[in-house]
Design a protein that fits this description.
- The protein is mainly α.
- Helix content is about 40%, strand content about 5%.
- The chain is built from 5 helices and 2 strands, in the order αββαααα.
- It has a two-stranded antiparallel sheet with strand order 1-2.
- Strand 1 and strand 2 form a beta hairpin.
- Helix 3 crosses helix 4.
- The radius of gyration is 16 Å and the shape is globular.
- The termini are close together.
Length: about 180
């Protein structure tokens, strides 16, 4: 029962991350806002990642009052750019996306690989935590890299790449009964 609850929480957290990242990645006024609710195909119940009744505390970021940001901080998916700033209008690099995804996977009780070398030749200059996260999302099948041997960690994540990353991560999570 607890495992099913964790999985549902994970799916909900994934949607919250997606909802929080879309405005930060958006460059078009015509972009539609993403709701923090989702209807699962196999379940007609509407779920919310951070319902008001959950009493999710404020993130402590001085540059954001977004409840979506509060939510992903609460679940440990983001740590902010500093302890007190989130940078809600900033861009997201591919290395940052790898960290978001592995933290989200952990919150969803997804078993991650050991982070061993996946033959990306362009990540050696990154911290050990970043290299591990990039290798883990490769092991999980969330990324194939920008080529067979490169990940391009400093490049910004495109909206299409973000959608693929999130969808592939969600594919690795089974929804509970």
């Amino acid at each position: 029962m607890l495992s099913h609850m964790k999985r549902r929480l994970g799916v909900i957290a994934a949607i919250a991350v997606f909802a929080a990242l879309v405005p930060a990645l958006s460059t078009s006024v015509a972009s539609a806002a993403v709701s923090a609710t989702v209807q699962l195909k196999s379940d007609a119940t509407l779920l919310e990642a951070c319902p008001a009744s959950a009493s999710i505390p404020a993130s402590g970021f001085t540059d954001s009052t977004s409840t979506d940001v509060d939510c992903i901080k609460y679940y440990g998916i983001t740590t902010g750019e500093t302890a007190t700033t989130y940078n809600p209008t900033g861009e997201v690099s591919r290395w940052e996306m790898a960290l978001f995804l592995t933290r989200m996977a952990t919150a969803m009780s997804v078993t991650l690989g050991d982070g061993s070398d996946q033959s990306f030749t362009d990540i050696s200059g990154e911290s050990a935590a970043i290299q591990t996260a990039i290798n883990q999302i490769k092991q999980l099948g969330v990324t194939t890299g920008t080529t067979a041997t490169t990940y391009s960690p400093a490049d910004n994540v495109t909206r299409e790449q973000m959608a693929m990353f999130v969808e592939r991560l969600l594919d690795s999570v089974g929804v509970g009964a």
